[in-house]
Write a structure and sequence with these properties.
The chain has 21 helices and eight strands. By secondary structure, it is α/β, with parallel strands linked by helices. The chain starts with a helix and ends in an 11-residue tail after the last helix. Bound molecules: guanosine-5'-triphosphate and magnesium ion. Residues 102, 104-110, 133, 136, 139, 187, 242-243, 245-246, 268-271, 275 line the site of guanosine-5'-triphosphate.
Length: 452
């Protein structure tokens, strides 16, 4: 997710040896400066970062550890606002009310869905969504589909006014003891007085704990400027950068918090519901410096994976009994974890893999589609026991899945090999072998050892 920035920091870190001289430091910082500016980080932020890192490193002695420490401290500082909330913060008295605001098409409705999903799946909260966009045609329908897909309750009424529907939703939330209320509003420009007045009215009625400004990362520094304007006119408590997956540079995320004076709270990095990440400074700094983010990964995994099921699956894999039903169940779980790319980016030392994987959509890859087509043509017994598949059965499958018999053989063989490999991996030392293999694939770059 932060490929570009991470590369900039890793390159700079690589330029300084354990003990080094000021010339090396200057070289590292001037290159870092250039690449950060190229990544669209605001020049004031870059200047502030570089001068601190130079000064601190010199003061403590030029060398890798001091350089890393200075970078880490300053980055954390840049991404933090003293006393402000991080990630998602719950009000002391439920429900926590969040008003989602922003320009047209910035990603408010999608982000509302993603937040609801995050709160429901990861935080195990009872979430209510209110459809207060009564401007755009089909806005309510869009939100109906999103909330139905994630099984979250929606309050909507196209004949009501935004203020009325918010009132109604909040009453329901009080009565039915919801933990969180997310209010999706219509897109608007800060110069549209009429719509801004309407928003102020909604704000007054909703009395929100949080006002999240959703900004499109692809608009670069404009995202920062519009956030500033909304902050002045309405007041905001956090920013969500959407469509970060489409912004190759990513520098906006680094400067935004200081520039707007309000913390960046979440990043949207895809169109699907799990594609939302909390922006928590310490964790992000680890990732920027190439050390991954095991904490966030563990949180996601805990939400997506049922430990009892996982244990059962491990037993099956160990015994070599992994079958097609298990495969389908695993695919469903993978979906909950989010995109492969975002997962890889969180594993220490796997950042480069994430880049290679790119935007691969596992679920829609041709291999997975073929396996799914095959599985849907199988009888329950065949799914349980792939060894039953003799030539006659294979011919039937081929016809059912629209594949030629050779193809069917190939897919079945691949599946068998994968099950064998999984069995091997599940043995003691198997994971270690895998990691060593990965390190070799990546040229054994290794990750920097960040001092704490
Ligand atoms: N790639 C990508 N697309 C996104 C992301 N977030 C939103 N989108 C897409 O951006 C488009 C607009 O998203 P919406 O959520 O409808 O935006 P909105 O702000 O509610 O739009 P209005 O209600 O019309 O003002 C949709 O096609 C979304 O799928 C993201 O993080 N990544
Ligand atoms: Mg919308």
């Amino acid at each position: 997710m932060f490929d570009n920035l991470t590369d900039s920091f890793k390159n700079a870190i690589g330029k300084i040896r354990f003990h080094d001289d000021e010339k090396a430091l200057k070289k590292a910082t001037s290159e870092l400066k250039k690449s950060l500016l190229k990544s669209d980080v605001h020049h004031k932020v870059v200047k502030d970062l570089i001068s601190y890192v130079e000064l601190e490193t010199k003061k403590n002695g030029v060398g890798k550890d001091n350089f890393l420490k200075a970078l880490q401290d300053k980055l954390t500082d840049i991404l933090t606002i003293e006393g402000a909330a991080k990630g998602f913060t719950f009000a002391s008295k439920p429900p926590t009310v969040v008003l989602m605001i922003g320009l047209q098409g910035s990603g408010k409705t999608t982000t509302t869905g993603k937040l609801a999903y995050f709160l429901k799946e990861q935080k195990k909260k009872k979430v209510l969504v209110i459809a207060a966009d009564l401007q755009r045609l089909a806005a309510v329908e869009q939100l109906k589909q999103i909330t139905a897909g994630i099984e979250v309750e929606l309050v909507a009424d196209e004949s009501a006014s935004p203020v009325e529907i918010v009132k109604r939703g909040l009453e329901k939330a009080e009565k039915e003891l919801y933990d969180v209320v997310l209010i999706d509003t219509a897109g608007r420009l800060a110069i549209d007085d009429e719509l801004m007045d309407e928003l102020a009215e909604v704000k007054k009625i909703a009395n929100p704990d949080e006002l999240f400004y959703v900004a499109d990362a692809m608009t670069g520094q404009d995202a920062v400027r519009t956030a500033q304007t909304f902050k002045e006119k309405i007041g905001i408590t956090g920013v969500v950068l959407s469509k970060f997956d489409g912004d190759g540079k990513g520098g906006v995320a680094l400067g935004l918090t200081q520039q707007v004076g309000v913390p960046l709270r979440f990043i949207g990095n895809g169109e699907k519901m799990p594609d939302l990440e909390q922006f928590i400074a310490d964790r992000i700094v680890g990732r920027l410096m190439g050390a991954g983010d095991v904490e966030s990964l563990a949180e996601r995994a805990a939400a997506a994976i049922d430990p009892k099921e996982a244990k059962k699956m491990t037993q099956k894999i160990k015994k070599g009994q992994f079958n097609f039903n298990d495969f389908l169940a695993q695919m469903e779980q993978m979906k909950k974890l989010g995109s492969m790319k975002s997962i890889m980016g969180m594993i220490p030392g796997m950042g480069n893999m994430a880049k290679q994987i790119g935007d691969m959509d596992l679920e829609n890859s041709s291999e997975i589609k073929q396996i799914k087509a095959l599985v849907s043509s199988m009888t329950p017994k065949e799914r349980e026991n792939p060894d039953l598949l003799n030539n006659m059965r294979k011919r039937r499958l081929a016809a059912g899945a629209g594949l030629d018999p050779m193809h069917v053989n190939r897919v079945l063989k691949q599946f068998k090999n994968a099950a064998k490999m999984a069995k091997k991996m599940s043995t003691k030392g198997g994971m270690k072998q895998m990691q060593e293999m990965m390190a070799q694939v990546q040229g054994g770059g290794g990750m920097p050892n960040i001092p704490r």
